[in-house]
Specification:
- The protein is built from two helices and eight strands, in the order βαβββββαββ.
- It has 167 residues and is mainly β.
- It has one domain.
- It has a five-stranded antiparallel β-sheet. A three-stranded antiparallel β-sheet has the order 2-3-4, with no helix packed on it.
- The N terminus is likely disordered.
- This is DUF1203 domain-containing protein.
- It comes from Ciceribacter naphthalenivorans.
Length: 167
């Protein structure tokens, strides 16, 4: 539009990041969870079990692991630990990072929260975000210099879903 002073919003390229394959392989090979316990092996009875490695749902009748996971590199006051699900058998890691993963399609909203380079919560960044606004909210957060990455968590139970990084 000629003569307009309106500026387009800055858009950061984002990437949806699953848990590392090395962490999943350790658990598949009998490793212990964040609490030093063996993951619980169960069979799904219906839907709603999101695997944090392939970022897709574990099909009905399939075996899965329930375990405590800490998506932070070290223990510190903000290093939340909580339950996640993982396919019991190896699955391919989610790699289409530029698109919304399947696990983020079953709920109308999620919590998005920014973290700094020291893995601390950046206060004031946590917000329940409608599914259709996840990319825009992540772009807004990651356009800030004080935010290194974003966690996506369940709006109902605060369970870790995945991480969003800049590309």
């Amino acid at each position: 539009m000629e003569g307009s002073n309106k500026q387009e919003p800055f858009m950061t390229a984002i990437h949806f990041t699953a848990i590392p394959t090395s962490a999943a392989e350790d658990l598949w090979d009998g490793g212990l969870d964040a609490y030093g316990l063996s993951p619980e092996r169960r069979i799904t009875h219906g839907g709603g079990y999101p695997c944090r490695h392939c970022l897709d749902f574990i099909a009905e009748g399939q075996a899965y692991l329930t375990l405590a996971y800490r998506p932070f590199p070290a223990l510190q006051p903000y290093a939340e630990t909580g339950p996640i699900f993982l396919h019991a058998e190896p699955c391919a890691r989610f790699e289409a990072g530029e698109i919304l993963p399947p696990v983020l399609t079953d709920s109308p909203d999620f919590i998005l929260r920014g973290y700094d380079r020291d893995d601390r919560i950046v206060y004031g960044t946590g917000a329940v975000t409608l599914r259709e606004n996840i990319e825009a909210r992540a772009n807004d957060l990651l356009s800030r210099d004080d935010i290194a990455y974003v966690h996506v968590r369940s709006a109902r139970n605060n369970c870790y879903q995945c991480r969003i990084d800049r590309t």
